[in-house]
């Protein structure tokens, strides 16, 4: 079997996953089981869309439970104790600019916590890969599938 992946995450990210897991196990599962019972009472299951829908949702939830349990089992809490204050790393918020463009700011998190709409990008994303390990005021090249571009790191903040 392939070596299990490590999931870097902040303490806050781990807590949120634990809360989601608890909700799925205690509340969502019970709601779905109840929907399945009600749908079964309608009779013929072969043409029962409510039953099929509830079973599909149950399958999705069980898959999500397994995924979260796996991520939590292999979670690695981010610790920036040995990282310079001005060095970009997972768990830090970094601001950068392309020449002639507006400044962009993202917090670099583990893939399990990524939420680009909230300004949290995965450490596995091209932008994060290009920035991690570099320091304030450095100009770095970000390599993306759509081409490369240079950015200057304008700010680095530790969130841990």
Map the helices and strands.
Blueprint: E1 7-9, H1 11-40, H2 49-73, E2 75-77, E3 92-97, E4 104-109, E5 120-122, H3 126-131, E6 139-144, E7 147-158
Parallel strand pairs: 1-2, 4-5
Antiparallel strand pairs: 3-4, 3-7, 6-7
The residue ranges in which pLDDT falls below 50 over 5 or more consecutive positions are: none
Distance between the terminal alpha carbons, to the nearest Å? Answer: 34 Å
Number of helices: 3
Q: What is the 3D form?
A: elongated
Strand content: 15-25%
Q: Determine the fraction of residues in helical runs and give it as a percent range.
A: 25-40%
Kindly name the structural category: alpha/beta
Q: Could you give a short account of the major beta sheet?
A: 5 strands, mixed
What is the overall pLDDT average?
Answer: 91
Q: Strands of the largest sheet, in order across it?
A: 5-4-3-7-6
Radius of gyration: 21 Å
H-E string: EHHEEEEHEE
Number of strands: 7
């Amino acid at each position: 079997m392939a070596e299990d992946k490590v999931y870097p995450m902040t303490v806050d990210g781990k807590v949120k996953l634990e809360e989601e897991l608890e909700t799925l196990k205690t509340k969502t599962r019970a709601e779905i089981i109840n929907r399945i019972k009600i749908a079964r009472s309608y009779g013929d299951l072969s043409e029962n869309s409510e039953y099929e829908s509830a079973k599909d949702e149950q399958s999705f939830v069980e898959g999500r439970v397994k995924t979260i349990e796996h991520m939590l089992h292999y979670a690695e809490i981010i610790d920036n104790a040995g990282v310079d204050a001005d060095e970009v790393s997972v768990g830090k918020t970094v601001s950068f600019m392309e020449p002639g463009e507006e400044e962009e700011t993202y917090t670099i998190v583990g893939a399990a916590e990524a939420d680009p709409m909230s300004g949290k990008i995965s450490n596995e994303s091209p932008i994060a890969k290009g920035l991690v390990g570099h320091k304030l005021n450095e100009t770095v090249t970000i390599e993306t599938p759509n081409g490369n571009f240079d950015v200057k790191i304008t700010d680095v903040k530790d969130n841990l």
